[in-house]
């Protein structure tokens, strides 16, 4: 019988995805009920909070057209966070011993069940970068196997800081997708989902970039 587990390696996540996951895991592990189930986590909650907050802060700084130094500091903090999440996942898997409710309570991601007829996985490592000229952006992401095409949504924040998705297009390529006619100075958000013979997968985490 297959034993449920959480993923221990999150290197494939984009910085935005990793930041979102880390914040979710920290909040989940700080819940009273979760602390009761995992009283001696590795790393400890104080250390985990320090590592997560350090990465989130440095990621936010580097994402705003950070300097080479700021990006380097973010990357070092990312490595520390990935190591911490790996240790935490091993600890969670050992303590939970396959108990699904305990695994889900941590905010970590479950290992996908093997299947020959699955919907596409969530698209990962979404990268949004400046294009060659003003008003352009380049979109790249990790390709998925046995996928027909990808659906891309573009949005921007409204007056309430809620992302409004206003543009959709399909592509068969995971690299070199160019978004044109962007307004300089406006922050745009992009998310991606894949389609195969079974249907559409879930949306990826959104990434953002200020058009130049």
From TrEMBL:
<protein>
    <recommendedName>
        <fullName>Fibronectin type-III domain-containing protein</fullName>
    </recommendedName>
</protein>
<dbReference type="InterPro" id="IPR003961">
    <property type="entry name" value="FN3_dom"/>
</dbReference>
<dbReference type="InterPro" id="IPR036116">
    <property type="entry name" value="FN3_sf"/>
</dbReference>
<feature type="domain" description="Fibronectin type-III">
    <location>
        <begin position="122"/>
        <end position="212"/>
    </location>
</feature>
<dbReference type="InterPro" id="IPR013783">
    <property type="entry name" value="Ig-like_fold"/>
</dbReference>
